[in-house]
Structure prediction request, 434 residues.
Amino acid sequence: MKISVIGTGYVGLVSGACFAEFGWNVTCIDKSSERIESLKQGIIPIYEPGLDDLVLSNVRAGRLSFSLDYAPAVEDSDAVFIAVGTPSRRGDGHADLTYVYAAAEEIASHLAGYTVVVDKSTVPVGTARKVAEIIRKANPNADFDVASNPEFLREGSAIGDFMRPDRVVIGAESERAKAVLKELYRPLYQIETPMVFTTLETAELIKYASNAFLAAKISFINEISALCEKTGADIKAISKGMGLDKRIGSKFLQAGPGYGGSCFPKDVSALIRIFHDNNLEPHILEAVTEVNLNQKMRLAYRVINLLGQDLTQKTIAVLGLTFKPETDDMREAPSLVIVPELIKAGAHIKACDPQGVREAKKLLPESVEYLDSPYDAVKDADAVIILTEWNQFRGLDLELIKKQMNGTLFADFRNIYDRSLVEKAGFTYIAVGR
Prediction:
């Protein structure tokens, strides 16, 4: 089968490379000449473990190619996936569908023969029908169906999520469209992957509901963590005790500085807007968003208060800037709230992150000093804060760090250290909910 993927961002590039790995012929299309040229040279524009090797091997095998032009790839495709960005729209939080609709109009003029146009981007309820309307208006003679196939890729483990998913959700109305998508995902039938076939609207809402529920779990456990700090309870033990209940599960019950990334913040915001558009009040979702912001601010002020409010003579080492490990994604990362608050209080920030520095420099205040090694970052610091649980930060030489620092505050905001070990090294240890 032949596939075109519109968009070479995170979802488009991973999906295209994985479909090629299935054995299909894939062309990834993008408007950015710089990005396409880089990909043709084997330069991957995003950091995702294993993606560079996957792309290179499939390019060499002749199954994966990159192009600026919709033709002739779209003309020859059995399916065309729309995998462009849907960022939060400024002012109202709704998903910005500008790129989705522009892609649909461009696709329409190149359709030849029966084609399934698939929304892979995260889009509000009703988008698939609007895409169909745009294509039909631009090309009344086109033989096509529109389907919804939301992605459930976690940054840092996206290839595994695509190749061994919990489920594949497909919203399609015609048997022809279902047959094409069944064939595309045929390799997953061999590992008995559940396939959920449903209506267009249901598929679109499954994606939002899933992400919002996971975000709610994070905000819930973070709210409980604040209570733990007041009562002396241990959030890690609470998470374990809760997670052993099969009705609840242990995933996304790890207390920390709040959720971030490219999906949860914008998807919760977009779902809130969808509720409002349908004259409904999303009470839980609005609380999830409020708790998430409060958690970031609360942790920033724990450090500020412990260091004495006025931090003009204080240096703080921040270990980890990305919203999670194994990615270079800085979108909505807790560091984007916590670091500016520390700077506002007068602190000098020395930061270290294995992959996020390039993006951090665009988003954080210019005064932040970036170091390659955590041991360089902590030199002469009054406090150290762990904001991202990179493996490089899990086994630090605590005694060496203590010797290099001026102060003793060790803020473990990912709960990756044992209190007794840190305190034995001479630190004042604080964590989340412990």
